[in-house]
Predict the structure.
Amino acid sequence: MTETQFVSAESSTADDLLIGARKIADFMKPMTPRQVYQVLETPGHTMPIWKEPGLGIVSTRGALDRWRRERAESAARRGAA
């Protein structure tokens, strides 16, 4: 996710969404693009991803890092109890 991804005007919305899902899944290994879609479609999900018109599925690296860290800390607290 360090490189900027430019999408041509001819790209379909599905292609734009897939690019975002792939990049997020790569960053959040072992997630797959399909799992990113499933999270996005789940009402009330807490993962910091969203659909941005004209861009597709987006997030920020910092928000994903924070979310992953908070989930790990929460799991550790549950395991310690």
About this structure: The two ends are 36 Å apart (CA to CA). Residues 9 and 71 are 37 Å apart (CA to CA). Helices lie at 13-27, 33-41, 61-80.
